[in-house]
Amino acid sequence: MRSARNQFILLGFICQGLSWDDWVLPLLNTALWIGCLLIAKRNINLGQTGDVFGMLFGCAAGFFLAGPLGASAHFFIGHGLTLLQASRLLRRLERREKIFSLIVAAGQVAVACTVILDYRFIIILFALLYLLPKAFAELETEQFNGSSAPVPFRIGWGTSAVIFGVMLLVFFGSPRAFITGGIRAPSLGGQAPGTMLDDMLDPSFGGRANSAKVILQVEAESISYLRMFALTRFVNGIWEPDPTAGYLPFQRAADVRLETLAARKVRVKNTAYLQRTLPVDGEPVSVTGRFFRGAHKAIDGTVVCRAMWNSANNLYQYWIDTNAPPRLIPDQRQRRYLKFPAPTPAVSNWLEGQTAGMNEPVMIARRIESHLRDTFDYELGVPNLSRLNALEDFLIREKRGHCERFASAMALLLRMKGIPSRVMVGFVPGRKNWLSGWYDIRFRDAHAWVEAYFPDEGWVQFDPTPRGSIALSNWNVAELIDALDVIWYLNIVNFSTADQQGMWQVSFDGVREVFLRARQFAPQIFVFGILTGIVVWLRKTGLGRFFKRPAGVPLERIVATHCYGRMLRLLARHGHRRALQQTPLEFLEGLKRALPGVADEAGLITESFCATRYGEIRSATLDRGAMEAALRVLSEKLKS
Questions:
Q1: Is 194 in a helix, a strand, or coil?
Q2: Contact 381, 207 (CB under 8 A)
Q3: Rounded distance between C-alpha atoms, residue 481 and residue 491, angstroms
Q4: Which parts of 358-499 are beta strand (E)?
Q5: Which of 284, 242, 462 is nearest to 361 (CA)?
Q6: What tens digit of pLDDT does each residue of 137-172 get?
Q7: Could you tell me the pTM of the whole model?
Q8: Under DSSP, is residue 274 helix (H, G, I), strand (E, B) or coil?
Q9: Please, are residues 233 and 454 in contact by the beta-carbon 8 Å criterion?
Q10: Domain boundaries, the chain
């Protein structure tokens, strides 16, 4: 397990598991990796037959299990490669097979990085930069000494700084138009509301009850319920969308005074959950985005696209008119929102008892809403209602259910009173994330409510589901991760050409401001520059040492040491370097043999240095002028 190659293979296993956008498969792949290494100690060898069988079984499992588990089947080959790698972990591999295993793991990491665009990417990147060079160093060591022991491999601070600098240069300097855009998945265009709608109406059906998985993140000052599906037809006890509903045109953003409208910016984690719809609230006037095509505003208040795909920029914006006048519905269309099955006597009596003495449609709707919300109980996964008299069973006997049952019951009761109504399905936002300032919309925020039509007010929202069932997110570590996720996405993944140009423009403006400020203090800056140059020159030539004598050190020693150092540098430039283990006198004897012509000058300077430094030559006297002259003569002789 300490092998860098095996650790890099584990990174490939984890990345392959993340292609399903869940933590279950990465954990299973990690357990598979550990199990294979433990079994390998027993020398179980499945051979190439095991490799082929594992590859085929992994591909088949990845392809056929993806649909039932709600994952993408596009990565089925990667799952086959995972089992191929697992089979090879059980036996000793040749060098060629080890290199192939590293290539397979690198491919799994590369594929995962095309779909993992959040904070996990940076973790994978650092793991890749650490493990891959270490794994190749381990292979080279095994080739020369035949050992498979772990190889100590460290990247110095200087190398790390260079790598980090190059990464920043590429990120900020490369033209964004050539390195962004992402890999687009196949279009989801032909899908109609199906399993996702069922999952939203009753989360326990799809196993997502109370799931904290984030679907959307919304930036807005305030936001109401987000509509996704409008169910207007009640056929054979089931609410369905109206396939004949028409569409209204959007206005182009360039043709709208956006400053007068309320703006919303929405980030989509995975477009497969939207099924060609864009969740919106209010009355949208304009919408823009790059991961969909042909967005239309339906008459029922939803936004539907002709095609939609995953990209590196799953971000859209829309603007709503909070002061829009009520949109009138022709009488002929109102009748579509009034169809309902014949009620049983018990339901009719119940409705009349609840609304007795009320004639105002709005008051009737408020009365039904408050009664269902205050006297009934919210419960997921409740038993199925009677097929023959489902409404009666819910109102009189069960008096409990999930949000779909409450919305369905109220919509039917309103239609019985002659009030046009429809069931809306979408999300109810909680509170803002305390760090990012965005709303985190999760699976558990899926909801169904009712919209009723009144000629003077248009469509009005009603929510008969007990309020205690609408849980708000608590401030916890998960919320911190979600905030870092959106910050990473907006500032790193979604760093566009416009952002890059803006950053450089700010930098140029800052430099220009510095130069403008500097012109006001030009004389002072000039004098400071001259003084700084003098100090640098003194330090470079060594003359500065004469102006600062260390405490307790005689001037004679400083002068002699300075001249001896100049001599050593002069000789080193001509290929005569003093070894670390040589004393000054030993170096002088060797120099006399190599360059007899400079023996007198070098001897004078060396003896003066030793006399003042070590006190070994008592007869020497310090003559600074003689040493300077000796240095000049020495320089001329070396040049000649």
A1: coil
A2: no
A3: 15
A4: 377-378, 400-401, 421-427, 439-442, 446-454, 458-462
A5: 462
A6: 888 777 665 555 555 556 667 777 787 777 777 766
A7: 0.55
A8: coil
A9: no
A10: 4-154, 195-340+420-493, 553-639
